[in-house]
Amino acid sequence: MKADEINSKLLNLEGVNGAEEEQLTLWINLLLNSERELRERLVRLHFLLLKVKCLLQPQILNLDIGFLLELAQMEQWVELNQDHVQNELRVLASEVRKHERDYTPDFLLSSSPT
């Protein structure tokens, strides 16, 4: 992700003295942890929204392609950040994957490998 690339470049602290480097490192780590937590909350909320929609309206579930692409990106983010995300989010992501056929349009399922 673009934000991760930018943040990792910030950690290269050439030309900064010891005390400034330590303080800057603390702030950068705070920023990284805050961003990770916000992303995790967003992904969890998105997954929960999908789960509720599937439970309440399975027969009229109408998701656009944009939503499905976002969902795929969020599933990928969870997989890439397995070491950092809470177990609850990993479980929720696996539940969403189990019901993927419930909310994926038929024309996409026929072209995807099984």
Automatic annotation (TrEMBL):
One of its GO terms (cellular component) is transcription factor TFIIIC complex. GO terms for molecular function: histone acetyltransferase activity. It comes from the Eukaryota. GO terms for biological process: transcription initiation at RNA polymerase III promoter. This is Uncharacterized protein.
